[in-house]
Description:
By secondary structure, the protein is of the alpha+beta class. The protein has six domains: 2-61, Helix hairpin bin (Helix Hairpins, Orthogonal Bundle); 85-315, 2-Layer Sandwich (D-amino Acid Aminotransferase, Chain A, domain 1), CATH 3.30.470; 320-402, CATH 2.40.50.140; 437-504, 5' to 3' exonuclease, C-terminal subdomain (DNA polymerase, domain 1, Orthogonal Bundle); 509-579, 5' to 3' exonuclease, C-terminal subdomain (DNA polymerase, domain 1, Orthogonal Bundle); 599-669, BRCT domain (Rossmann fold, 3-Layer(aba) Sandwich), CATH 3.40.50. 36% of the residues lie in helices and 20% in strands. It contains 24 helices and 24 strands. α3 (89-102) packs antiparallel against α9 and α12 packs across α13. The protein starts with a helix and ends with a helix. 35% of the residues are buried. Bound molecules: ligand 5U1. Ligand 5U1 is lined by residues 81-83, 114, 116, 121, 174, 226-227, 289, 291, 308, 311.
Amino acid sequence: xxxxxxxxxxxxxxxxxxxxxxxxxxxxxxxxxxxxxxxxxxxxxxxxxxxxxxxxxxxxxxxxxxxxxxxxxxxxxxxxxxxxxxxxxxxxxxxxxxxxxxxxxxxxxxxxxxxxxxxxxxxxxxxxxxxxxxxxxxxxxxxxxxxxxxxxxxxxxxxxxxxxxxxxxxxxxxxxxxxxxxxxxxxxxxxxxxxxxxxxxxxxxxxxxxxxxxxxxxxxxxxxxxxxxxxxxxxxxxxxxxxxxxxxxxxxxxxxxxxxxxxxxxxxxxxxxxxxxxxxxxxxxxxxxxxxxxxxxxxxxxxxxxxxxxxxxxxxxxxxxxxxxxxxxxxxxxxxxxxxxxxxxxxxxxxxxxxxxxxxxxxxxxxxxxxxxxxxxxxxxxxxxxxxxxxxxxxxxxxxxxxxxxxxxxxxxxxxxxxxxxxxxxxxxxxxxxxxxxxxxxxxxxxxxxxxxxxxxxxxxxxxxxxxxxxxxxxxxxxxxxxxxxxxxxxxxxxxxxxxxxxxxxxxxxxxxxxxxxxxxxxxxxxxxxxxxxxxxxxxxxxxxxxxxxxxxxxxxxxxxxxxxxxxxxxxxxxxxxxxxxxxxxxxxxxxxxxxxxxxxxxxxxxxxxxxxxxxxxxxxxxxxxxxxxxxxxxxxxxxxxxxxxxxxxxxxxxxxxxxxxxxxxxxxx
Length: 670
Ligand code: 5U1
């Protein structure tokens, strides 16, 4: 490297800042992580040997400053407003009507719609493009100065980009923690016996309000900016959506799901779209915000007390509610795993009455310090089984009871074992245990396994209790008469069931393997095993060593597979199933990989795996993974915070997969 040390340092800083921006804000890195690390280390080395050139705005300084004794108060130049809430469509229509009345118009109002992040509101003050202060909202008038802490967040630029940056700019945004980072933080905290955060919002707020900014630096926070509090030395554009575009151009991060709609009906459609997306987003949102898009109209509408008349938050139904644990029971799954289930005082959550919530396992009970009789917060998100989030310890009474792991199975009374290092306790009864039998049969018949429609939980329970079946193979020797005689089962339903059972005999090897319910063999592994071994016989004879040559199969899974096929009752059952007529098409030796000929581009962060892993998995299925989008791209996989590649894909009409659909594709392989 040529030039004076100072010049070298400056050049490296500029280069690293640009790469930071491309990586964290645009999600369009130009260089590999390794190359970035190399530049960063180079700068660090130069700064260590020449500390006289270290500037507070060097990218190496995003590690936090010296701890504070307390936070300084900051009076906001322009108050940080809060938002009125709408809970129903009627509330939204009334909001729109109020606006049109106030503006004396019958014309539709254009709105800018944004997701409402569940985080911590922050004001960022930039002078001549330089971040000079960050403050929390506080009471809206006076907040706390958290500049050092906010400067540790990588998506907050220290220096704005572009020629048209205003002299003074106060930007408003929400600091948040992704769901994944939140879980990771709590897992780490648990391992160290430290405080657990109840939700990502608390985790974000707790992380920003740290007197020691090095602690904030260690927390994976991010920001989305959603508006301007103050601007000097520049005329703002006419619309809020254009203001957001300016923020983006200056290097600030704006939520990619922001959209402009023509009228209030567009707002309601946007709400539905975001509600459907909510669970698949990598961060929590608790609703959406509608803002009158024309700034001139915003000005005419003004404020009422602390909230603007021109904006409203349309909240999603609460996903959490408070109740009491009345009892705890243990359920036995198909692998014998015992799951503690809290019987709750019924409570309304997200439009449904919830009376049971999973407590996962004993470790989780200890971690959350849950007792029978505790007041708790329960959460029901999407289709996920309700869970106990936290205990409200301030409401704890003296007659709470400890939750004990039973020594014997509540169903078959066999001993319970808990292998050291495993969170899950199991019943040792195996097929003696009717709960395990029922679950194994239900799994065998389920949609993604043998797909026997109608043979669900209730019917399996009836059939096992009536001793008509005791294993999966017995399904195929059930008689019409036996089925028709069951309660709530007429001739017609029995016939439908028989048709379904008959149909299930024609299947595929991956489905059959998955249906067997071998521990740790999910759909994806079953598919890999089938592709690798091609026949059931070859798989049955495989050693642990050979099995580990298969993608996704490690020593634990290999041991489970060998153990399963070693058990004589399992071999007998397979024989009976094949004798009953279950068959599948032969897997050809020259089988073509399912994604052959397809090109993928990855953008954004995936929750379930790194980009490298995603690439590897795609390539194993025959796909090519490219770095940039073109008309030849088959799919763009967009994780959280996708960058410009997503826009390009949309522009070119290339199919876009979110993480959920991408995972489905990996499982299905087509
Ligand atoms: N997305 C978004 N969140 N949020 C919160 N926009 C937004 N706007 C806000 C608030 C409090 O307030 C302005 C409308 C003043």
